[in-house]
Amino acid sequence: MPLLQYEAPTSLAQARQALAGRSDAKILAGGTDLLVQMRLGLRDPALVVDIKHVPELMEITLGEQGLRLGAAVPGAVVTDHPEIGQLYPGFVEALGLIGSSQIQGRCSAGGNLCNASPAADCVPALIANRATCNIMGPDGERTVAVEAFNTGPASNCLAADEILVSIDLPRPGPRSSDAYLRFIPRTEMDIAVAGAAVALSLDEAGVCIDARVAIGAVAPTALLVPAAADALIGGTLDEDSLNRASAAASEAAAPITDKRGTVEYRKKVVGVLVRRAAGVAKARIEATS
Amino acid sequence: MSNPKKIHVSTTVNGEPCEFLCEPGQVLSNALRNNLDMTGTKEGCSTGDCGACSVMLDGALVCSCLVLAAEAEGRTIETVEGVADGNALHPIQQKLLEHAALQCGICTPGIVVAAKSLLERHPDPSEEEVRYYLAGNLCRCTGYDKIIRAVLDAGTVMRGE
Fold it and tell me: A51: nearest CA in chain B?
């Protein structure tokens, strides 16, 4: 690959300095998208900035506020973590679905987000969990909700000199859980035809008091579907609520027809996935309370 | 295009400290094979799909075709060359032979490294777990069944059963 320069800063300040004024630079986290694109000749940066030596990008802090996950923390580190999967099982499942065991050793939630594939598995799960992005730029920090981060296929809201530093997932309340389901024709190593993430909170009587529904691979970016959440809130995940949530997700989906599926098929399947993911999240709450 | 400046890398491969000079755009699989003459690691697809280039990087299983050689600075790499103990094959290597779980052999180094990573983390995996864990190691000769049986069999040896 005709790369001219490699930098490995050890602080955010150094990383910002390396990127300052450069429109020909790319940030390297796990490289499972960037290096593939470079090897295929799809990208040709003059400078690669490896940010894995910046402590903030590799941070895992789990506290009363929730999880702060450094943008470059590898998938395998998250899936092996003893507590993250208990709080956000759907998010951890979604992250763990990305690629092979080898890819898990390098891929990251932050990279999955920045790569901005419409089919990125962990993005709907982050949105369902009300995750926010901590972004560092020349003028300081800003925070963006995950659902507003990506602006289209392969494009995101970062300026050339900005860095996605970490992702915050608020701590779920009591009797809360999440789930992510995707449809792929195989059982492993494939890209979602459609995906759905649901996060739920139930009260003591089993009534849904909070919900977030997000769908993937059915629009230029992953979508938050408030109408699907509204259909679930106030009910007991009964047939009527699930039907309305499923219909709302199918309605919100704006997919394309490609080799992985047609518009009609994807709209139908994403509704089915929302219904099933809601069922999984509910079962998880019931199993632990 | 101007000539990129070479990067000096100090790293540890299979327990031995070593140094090499690489291009900024050179990947680790290439550096292992061409700078360090360790040709056990194969490169198949160059895009992280086939797993032939599997190595351990600071204890994590990775595709070395998707790691820049410069990233190896200060880190620990384990390759297939470090798996056997002198002339004594590792149980995974021995069982791959006994089960005739290879034909052309290009995927085998990656299978050995990945299977060792699995059995060291999960000493007693189910067949399904082995199949999922090795889903990123493509083999076009065996149909996988012999590989899976060899890895399960190696697990019994490693557990001392």
Answer: B71
Residue that finishes a domain, picked among B82, B102, B125: B82
CB contact under 8 A, A28 and B68: yes
What's the pLDDT at B1? 46
B136 vs A5, A52, A102: nearest CB:
A102
Contact (CB<8Å) B24/A38: no
Enumerate residue ranges in chain A where pLDDT < 50. none
Minimal C-alpha gap between B99 and chain A (Å): 24
- Is the domain of B99 the same as that of B47? no
pLDDT tens digits, A227-250: 999 999 999 999 999 999 999 999
Q: Is the pLDDT of residue B2 over 60?
A: no
pTM: 0.96
How far away is chain A from the Cα of B137, in angstroms, using its nearest Cα? Answer: 8
Pick the CATH number of A5-50 from 3.30.43.10, 1.20.1250.20, 3.40.50.1100, 2.60.120.620: 3.30.43.10
Q: Please report, for residues B33, B123, B152, B161, the alpha-carbon distance to residue B149 in angstroms, rounded to integers and kept in the order given.
A: 30, 15, 5, 16
Domain map (residue ranges) of chain A: 5-50, 55-170, 185-288
Cα torsion A24, A1, A149, A131: sign? negative
Model confidence at B3: pLDDT above 80: no
Domain boundary among B53, B82, B111: B82
In chain B, which residues have their Cβ closer than 8 Å to the Cβ of A105? Answer: 57, 60-62
What does the pLDDT average to over B12-25? 97
The answer to whether the CB of B51 falls within 8 A of the CB of B109 is: no
Contact A4 B4 (CB under 8 A): yes
The answer to whether A102 contacts B54, with C-beta atoms less than 8 Å apart, is yes
Residue B138 has pLDDT above 80, yes or no: yes
Strand order in the sheet with B54-57: B16-22, B7-13, B76-78, B54-57, B60-63
Residue B43 CA to residue B66 CA, distance in Å, equals: 10
Say whether B60 and A31 touch across the interface (CB within 8 A). no
Interface pTM, i.e. ipTM: 0.96
* Structural domain of B72: 7-82
